[in-house]
Amino acid sequence: MGADPTEVAVREMTVNYFGTPSGSRVLAPIIATRGGGALANVLSVSNWSTSPMNGSYCASKAAACALTDGLLLELAHQKTQAVGVYASSIDTDTG
Question: Can you give the three-state secondary structure of 18-39, one letter per residue?
Fold first, then answer.
């Protein structure tokens, strides 16, 4: 039997979405002390359209994209950009 879809969705949101503000909270002040810079968030073309059997992954990447857009606005005052890197296909260990 396959993995519980809710558990999969929670894991995907934890990694793809909740990791972004955690890392940004640590890095943004460091970048500010250096006069500004950029945070790059690895996103996916999957955030633009959902594919069958991949809905929660696509949702997690769409949430991360929205957060990246918000960080761009929130960090502008310290001359820090937040940008998304939109990968298409990356073979990752999901085990």
Answer: HHHHHHHHHHHHHHHHCCCEEE
